Amino acid sequence: MTAPVLLWLRRELRLTDNPALRAALATGRPVIPVFVLDDETPGAWAPGGASRWWLHHSLAALGADLVRLGAPLVLRRGRLDFEIARLVAETGAVEVHAGTPTEPWARAAYRTVIDAIAPVKLRCTMTALLHHPDEIRTQAGTPYGVFTPFGRAVRAHGPIALPEPAPADIPGGAAVASDDLESWGLLPAAPDWAGGLRTAWSPGEAGAQARLREFVAEGLDQYRARRDLPGTDGTSRLSPFFAWGEISPRQVWHSSAACEKFRDEVLWREFAAHLLWHNPTLPDAPLRAEFAAMPWRDDQAGLRAWQRGQTGIPIVDAGMRQLWHTGWMHNRVRMIVASFLVKHLMLPWQLGEAWFWDTLVDADLAQNAASWQWVAGSGADAAPYFRVFNPVLQGRKFDPDGAYVRRYVPELALLPDSVVHAPWEAPALVREAAGIRLGATYPAPVVELAAGRDRALQAFAALRKVA
DNA sequence: AGCCTCTTGCA
DNA sequence: GCAAGAGGC
C-alpha cells in the first residue's frame, strides 16, 4: 500500500481554495487530514472561550465533509511537535503538508515540528493570505508601515490567483485513531453562555459560503453607504469565518470586484497580518517605543464596567453587550469602545486586547493586536494621539435613531432619539417618563467625557514631548 | 478610520 | 441663529 501524507489543518478549516490540501493531493498519495488541539504552545494566545465554541462547530462540520469525501479527520490533543511526530510514526507518512503559520508562536512551533519529524519534511503553503508577507515590500525593500501605499502595492503586484474549487473526493489512508470531539470540552457547559452565539452564527465552511453568497447578493452594493451604521446589517460578518480559515481571502477578493471599498477591508486584514509577520511582539508591546512610558491607569472597577457594558455611556455599553451576547461587535463600535478604554479610561490597550481575544468569535492574533495598537496610537499608520472618539457624537452620527443602542441596552429604549446617546443630558422629567434613574436603572457615566478626554490628551502630549 | 473652534455666508 | 468649511491640536 502507498505510504500516505498528512494534511495538518490548523487555521485553514476548509476544502474550497485550500492550497495546502491541493499540495497534499498533488502527491498522488493517500491523504490523512489531522487537527491538533494544543493549549500549551500558544501560551496566552490559546483560543479564547468564544473561539473554542466556534472551533467545536467548525471541526464538526469539517469532519462530516471529510468523511463524505473519503478521508476522515483525525483529532489529537497535545503539544504540536509531539502529536505531529507521533502521527507520522503511526501512519508511516512520508510528508506533512500544512498552511504557512503566520502567528509568531506558531512560526516558532513549526520549527520544532520540523526537527521532531525529520527526515520527513514539513511542506508549508500559504493558505491564510493573498500574498506571503515577503512578497510585498517597498522599493527600498522594507515592509510597508502605512496602509494606503501598502494597498496600492498589493493591487499593483499582479492579479490575485483564482480560488480553487473543493476536490470531489480525497483518497484516504488506513484508519487512524481519533479523539472524540465532544471530549475536548470546547463548548461551555456550566453555565452555557453560548445561546446568543448559536442564534447569531452558523460556523463551518458551508456557513461561510452561504454568508458570502448572501452578502455579495444583498449587501455588497450598499456596503459603502451602510458599513458604518451599526443599527443596520451593512457589513459582511465574514470575520469569524476568516479567523479559522473557513473561507479564503482569494475567494472573497474575487467575489467582491464590484466594491473596492469592501476590498480595502480585505487589504486591511492583509496589512495587519504582514505587520505581525514583521513585528512578532505586536500583540504584547507598543510598536512605537515611546508608548512604553505611557502612564496607564490601574482601575479594576473601570475595566469591569467596560467589560460588562456598564459604563453609563450608551454606545459603549451597547457594543460591549453585543460582544458578550453574540461574540461579535460592529467595526464602527469596536473603534468607539476601544478608544473609550484606552483614552477616556486610560487603561492599557493590552487589557482590551485580552478581553476581545476571549470573547470574540473572530479573534485573530494579527487583527486584534494591530487594531488595538491603531486605536492606542502606538501602532503602524496609527490614529494621531489627539484623535479621541467622542462616544456621544459617534453615536448620534452613526446610530442617529438609536436603534443599535435600544437593541442592546433595552433599559434606554424609551428615551427620545435626542438623548438616547446621552441620558444624563435629558431633563429629569424626560428620564422619569422613560423609567430611567441614573445610578439605579442605568449607570451614571464612569468618567465624565470632557474630563477623560482632556486627561488623555495631556498624557499623550507629554509622551510626544519626550519622544 | 476626529474633535473643536472660528469664520463665513445666508436668513 | 445656523450650517458648512478650514485649520489646529
Keyword list:
about 475 residues, mainly alpha, DNA Cyclobutane Dipyrimidine Photolyase, subunit A, domain 3, DNA-binding
Tell me the fraction of residues in β-strands, as a range: 5-15%
- The end-to-end span amounts to 66 Å
Radius of gyration: 23 Å
Can you identify the CATH superfamily of the largest domain?
DNA Cyclobutane Dipyrimidine Photolyase, subunit A, domain 3
Q: What is the CATH domain class of the largest domain?
A: Mainly Alpha
Order of helices and strands: EHEHEHEHEHHHHHHHHHHHHHHHH
Number of strands: 5
Topology-level CATH name of the largest domain: DNA Cyclobutane Dipyrimidine Photolyase, subunit A, domain 3
Looking across the biggest beta sheet, what order are the strands in? 3-2-1-4-5
Second-tier CATH architecture of the largest domain: Orthogonal Bundle
Can you tell me the number of structural domains? Answer: 3
The largest β sheet comes out as:
5 strands, parallel
Our count of helices gives 20
| Average pLDDT number | 96
Share in helix: 40-55%
Q: What is the overall silhouette?
A: globular
Which secondary-structure class do the elements indicate?
mainly alpha
Low-confidence stretches: none
